[in-house]
Structure formats: C-alpha cells, structure tokens
Amino acid sequence: MLLTVKVRSGSGEPIIKDNMIVIFTKAERVNGMANADVIAQIKKLYKTENVFIKTGKTSSRKVIFVGTEKP
C-alpha cells in the first residue's frame, strides 16, 4: 500500500486529510532523524515493521510504502 504523507514540525496525533496523512514530528531534519521518526509513527499506526520511504526523502511530502516486502 502506498501512502501520501505530509510532514510538519511540532507535536500532535496523525491526521487524515484530503487522502493524505499529516504527521507531526519534533525531530530535527538532520541525518534522517525526522524521516526515522515519521517511519516509527507509521509503523505504530499500521502495526507493521515493513515501512519504507519510496519518494520524498528530502521533502515534506513523501510517498511511503507499507507492506510485506520492499518495492
């Protein structure tokens, strides 16, 4: 399954808005710390360990793959 994710700074629960999930993170955008936090939140939300960023590693808009194997 592919998810479109918008990442925002700050705190709060994930919001589903206009076919997009808005994820809040307090992690800094240095050395992939914000991406790691986003992946951890998606893993917790969907209760799976198989989560990968497909596109948008340096963008606030990302396409994230959630599934059984890496695409």
Largest sheet: number of strands, sense, barrel closure: 5 strands, mixed
What fold name goes in the CATH topology slot?
Answer: Conserved Hypothetical Protein Mth637, Chain: A
Strand order of the largest sheet: 2-3-1-5-4
How many distinct domains?
1
Helix segment count?
Answer: 1
Tell me the span between the first and last alpha carbons. 10 Å
* CATH architectural arrangement: 2-Layer Sandwich
Q: Can you offer a commentary on this structure?
A:
This protein has one helix at residues 33-46; strands at 2-9, 15-17, 20-25, 51-55, 61-66. It has one domain (2-66): 2-Layer Sandwich (Conserved Hypothetical Protein Mth637, Chain: A), CATH 3.30.1200.10. The mean pLDDT is 92. Strands 2-3-1-5-4 form a 5-stranded mixed β-sheet, covered by helices on one side. The chain contains 1 helix and 5 strands. By secondary structure, the chain is an alpha+beta fold.
Topology overview:
Elements (H helix, E strand, L loop, with lengths): L1 E8 L5 E3 L2 E6 L7 H14 L4 E5 L5 E6 L5
Parallel strand pairs: 1-3
Antiparallel strand pairs: 1-5, 2-3, 4-5
Keywords for this structure?
single chain; alpha+beta; Conserved Hypothetical Protein Mth637, Chain: A; 71 residues
Summarize this entry quickly.
By secondary structure, the protein is α+β, with helices and mostly antiparallel strands. Helix content is 20%, strand content 39%.
